[in-house]
Amino acid sequence: MNAAIDTVQPIRRPTQLRDTLRQMLAVLEDERQALAGLDVDAIMGCAVDKNALCGRLDTTAPEAIDEECRGLLEAARRVNEANRRVRNLIAANVSARLDALTGQPALYRANAPHARISRAR
Does the residue 103 lie in any domain? Predict the structure, then answer.
């Protein structure tokens, strides 16, 4: 999808904004599927596409936002939030597995006291 994302022209009309938001929803759906399949390459591709689309959305003129656009914005916000929760669950699962391997759960916590991995004796 990278080639289809145009980041040069500012968004001035609701039809342009709708098209961009529909692209964002499609990328968010692709991301959901990539997360479900733990497809790291697809997840990274979606991150690049989302970033490019966000850059495009940054060019939006206020008069381009109509009621339909507001609905698409809200839908994109909901799907992005659901995807964020899935990413966080995956990260928590990885942390739990790493903690189980080391036997020291504090090792991967940001604000935990110093932790060391014991050497085999």
Answer: no
Q: Which residues contact 90 (CB under 8 A, 6 or more apart)?
A: 35, 38
Question: What is the DSSP-derived secondary structure letter of residue 5?
Answer: -
What's the pTM? 0.74
> In the block, which residue shows the tokens 């916000």?
77
How many domains does the structure of the chain reveal?
1
Residue 108 φ then ψ, to 5°:
-110, 20
Residue-by-residue pLDDT tens, the chain, 121 positions: 454 554 468 899 999 999 999 999 999 999 999 999 999 999 999 999 999 999 999 999 999 999 999 999 999 999 999 999 999 999 999 888 888 888 876 544 566 555 455 555 4
Q: Determine, yes or no, domain membership for 33.
A: yes
